[in-house]
Design goal:
- The chain is an alpha+beta fold.
- The protein is about 70% helix and about 10% strand.
- It is built from 10 helices and 5 strands.
- Helix 4 packs antiparallel against helix 5 and helix 7 packs across helix 8.
- The N and C termini lie far apart (about 70 Å).
Length: about 300
């Protein structure tokens, strides 16, 4: 019976996870509140007390995983109280008030432990996911994450017919600066560049380090005119840190604006990269703009 209940709980939890994801904490809180009386009613009608306690772990897991640890603990306290109510009035759980209290403390403590462990597990998973998507040096996203986000945005603009711009940025003569000042200063320079890019873009934009001294920006719902304004502002901030640090570098940028959705993220990235190389061929430290699809 216990094995069957564990399978049922796992199936229900996976179904909730697939439909809910991390998109709506308020919805998770509402589901938690609805599940508490539903589980209590099921326990009163059909289940013995020990299996009822196991089933009460479901709203606790939901709250701890999809809201936060404190919501999970509050749900555990409420679930432990509701689970213990029959014993408080009927004495059927165990004989004697002391035994009832012991059962309440043990059951509630177990549910609180479940909430804490689930919350810790969720934080560890989220941290691992964040690390897998983040460049360890600069804090910008990495190339894998950038391509994934680009694919998502391509699908979205295909549905809503909105513009999309991608920018490829290369630090001109970075190798020379790295050789002259050392790798630690070079790393600091890359972090400063990433900081300017992150500060100069919106929360909905994506900034990624593609490798070495190359960065990329994804600017959703951004046409060429607006992208030019954004890049002019970013270039001024980059020029400021270059002058302040006395670094012998510049920034070649290639910006591609999509009039129609591209076939793939890799294809759009390649076009932005080629546009950036066009800036280098024109003398470096400048921005070249292009549109997608390219003119035949």
């Amino acid at each position: 019976m216990h094995g069957v209940m564990r399978v049922v709980m796992r199936t229900i939890a996976e179904g909730i996870q697939n439909r809910l994801g991390r998109r709506s904490r308020p919805l998770a809180a509402v589901l938690t509140i609805v599940l508490l009386p539903a589980v209590w009613l099921l326990c009163r009608l059909a289940l013995p007390a020990d299996l009822g306690l196991l089933l009460f772990a479901l709203p606790v897991l939901l709250a701890a995983s999809y809201v936060n640890m404190w919501m999970g603990i509050l749900t555990a306290l409420a679930a432990g109280t509701v689970w213990s109510l029959p014993a408080l009035f009927t004495g059927r759980m165990l004989d004697g008030p002391f035994a009832v209290v012991v059962n309440y403390v043990a059951g509630t403590g177990l549910l609180v432990l479940v909430a804490c462990l689930e919350s810790a597990r969720r934080r560890a998973v989220e941290r691992q996911q964040m690390l897998s998507r983040t460049d360890s040096l600069t804090g910008a996203e990495n190339s894998r994450s950038f391509l994934e986000r680009t694919e998502e945005e391509i699908q979205r603009i295909g549905r809503h017919e909105r513009p999309l711009s991608m920018v490829y940025v290369d630090v001109d003569d970075f190798k020379r600066a790295n050789d002259v000042y050392g790798h630690s200063v070079g790393d600091g320079l890359l972090c400063a560049v990433a900081g300017v890019l992150l500060a100069g873009t919106r929360a909905t934009d994506v900034v990624a380090r593609m490798g070495g001294d190359e960065f990329a920006l994804l600017l959703p719902e951004t046409g060429q005119a607006e992208a030019q304004r954004v890049l002019d502002r970013i270039r001024k901030d980059l020029d400021f840190i270059v002058r302040k640090g006395g670094w012998p570098i510049g920034f070649s940028m290639g910006c591609v604006t999509c009039a129609v959705p591209p076939d793939s993220a890799e294809g759009l990235l390649h076009q932005a990269d080629q546009t950036m190389y066009a800036a280098k061929k024109q003398g470096k430290n400048r921005t070249v703009f292009a549109v997608h699809p390219e003119s035949p």
